[in-house]
Amino acid sequence: MKARRVLERELSRIPAPLSHKLYLEQYVTDVGAATELLFMGFNGGGIAGKQVIDLGAGNGILSIGAILLGAESVTAVEVDPDLGKLLAENVSDYPVEVLNIDVSDVSGHWDTAIMNPPWGSQSRGADRPFIDMATAIADNVYSIHNYKSVEFLRKYYSGKGRILKERKILVEIPKTYRHHEKDKEFFEAVIFSVTTVED
Ligand code: SAH
Fold it and tell me: What pLDDT, on the 0 to 100 scale, is given for residue 150?
């Protein structure tokens, strides 16, 4: 298994998008948060040897991380065609299939869904189709959300599966949009581990 800092170093080399679309809430997950999610998935048995889907894949940081931790294959879903091109370039050396479609149009079954979906801060409820889809198509879900919504999320996930773990973390978001006042800001986030399989 890869040591955490080796994974962090590899993830920090993945090219980021040159521009961002605010209405899609495009951010690049900071490497520390991505690593945290990936190791939670790995330790929960949801990554190594598994078929994984990454919903709202962006530049592919979570998809590539899953492959580096031993996933058999990853399906990377991204609605934005511009970002889809960068994503396809970034994952070209790996067993990752890119689907340039809306999250609501996904169909199939995967062992594990990983995602850092929009947090719903620009468009309220933008995270819900991600949660709906992830819990419908995968046995395990690992997902990063805004900690501000934690109580809503607990209830929402509980209606769709069983929450196995919940971890509060700090996420660093570099200045991406004009409404960001500082060079970088820290946000409280929460990672959920959810299973949809009855025991
Ligand atoms: N997973 C990446 C990107 C997170 S930002 C990372 O961790 O760095 C959220 C991503 O979801 C953006 O790339 C955005 O374009 C994408 N997205 C937003 N709405 C979407 C939708 N309806 N269907 C698919 N992707 C969507």
Answer: 95
